[in-house]
Design goal:
Blueprint: E1 3-5, E2 12-14, E3 16-19, H1 28-40, E4 45-47, H2 56-64, E5 73-78, E6 80-82, E7 89-91, H3 95-108, E8 114-120, H4 128-140, E9 144-150, H5 154-163, E10 168-172, H6 184-190, E11 194-198, H7 219-236, H8 240-249, E12 254-260, H9 264-274, H10 282-288
Parallel strand pairs: 3-4, 3-12, 4-5, 5-8, 8-9, 9-10, 10-11, 11-12
Antiparallel strand pairs: 1-2, 6-7
Protein name: Aldo/keto reductase
Length: about 300
């Protein structure tokens, strides 16, 4: 599997990453088998967060990657604190909280460093300068190798790009969500940061789920995009998933498409597409987007 540079961090990640949120923490053996097979097939980027399953997801991931820990890029996220009763969480973004909270993640992940530590959300009203100070301190201490942001808010992304050395921004990006193409993908590339594309298959809509409205698109518009995908797939001999992932990975700002699976069958289906991913040129993209209107971020600008 192709490996790509993660911003200017020096880290290399597989073009397909495993989003571990979908793994079932109450089925640790199955989760471990999925992670092991993903690694065996060339996936080297594994993403989790302290929020997932109240930390249990980090525990499962940490136990599953021990045999090849130094051969992968392990990513986690910080910024959310579960309520005592477990019914919800509060947004926590401060230097003290980030520095203190990483210790729990390191313990659960059974590691003494996290390759990519990401702020799990964020608003323009957060103390951005001190958040950056926290990540820079953790980097200096060797507890993280690089840091990034998980956000779809243009104003927050721009603030971090202008003030910090973030390596990446994880954001939703697919044929059905091309909002990053308005300006964010170019800003990332011009500032030495990469996009970690989540939702590349649009929750299965771009594979086999029934047609329904998506973001600002009506059901009819979604159906039109799927027809375009099918037309390309017929000509190339590939499936929808391969074409959808090829579109995302043809954007030079994208380092990896982070895809979640919860079963071995889903992993096998994902791996079968990765063998045939290819770069789409401008003409390919034009045909794929024929008759499709552009979407734009309407908030947090």
């Amino acid at each position: 599997m192709e490996q790509r540079r993660l911003g200017e961090s020096g880290l290399m990640v597989s073009e397909i990453g495993l989003g571990c949120m979908s793994l079932k923490s109450n089925q640790p053996k199955q989760s471990k088998d999925i992670i092991q097979k993903a690694f065996d097939k060339g996936i080297t980027f594994f993403d989790t967060a302290d929020l997932y399953d109240k930390g249990q997801n980090e525990t499962v991931v940490g136990e599953s990657v021990q045999a090849f820990r130094k051969q992968i890029v392990l990513a986690s996220k910080v910024g959310n604190l579960w309520w005592a009763d477990g019914s919800g969480w509060d947004w926590k973004a401060s230097k003290d909280y980030i520095i203190r909270t990483i210790e729990g993640s390191l313990s659960r992940l059974k590691t003494d460093y996290i390759d990519l530590y990401q702020l799990h959300g964020g608003t323009i009203d957060d103390p951005i300068d001190e958040i950056i100070e926290a990540f820079e301190l953790l980097k200096k201490q060797g507890k993280i190798r690089a840091y990034g942001l998980s956000s779809i808010r243009p104003n927050v992304i721009k603030a971090f790009l202008s003030k910090s050395s973030i390596a990446s921004v994880m954001m939703q990006y697919s044929v059905l969500d091309r909002r990053p193409e308005e300006e964010i993908d170019a800003l990332l590339a011009n500032n030495g940061a990469s996009m970690l594309a989540r939702g590349a298959l649009a929750k299965g809509l771009l594979v086999n789920k029934p047609v329904e409205p998506y973001l600002q698109y009506s059901s009819g518009e979604v159906a039109h995009i799927l027809r375009n995908l099918d037309n390309r797939a017929k000509k190339s001999g590939e499936g929808r998933a391969t074409e959808a992932l090829s579109y995302v990975l043809s954007n030079p700002a994208v380092a990896t498409a982070v895809v979640g699976v919860s079963t071995k069958l889903q992993l096998d289906e994902l791996l079968s597409t990765t063998q045939r991913i290819k770069q789409l040129d401008k003409l390919d993209k034009k045909k794929l987007l024929d008759g499709v209107r552009s979407l734009y971020y309407t908030e947090h600008r």
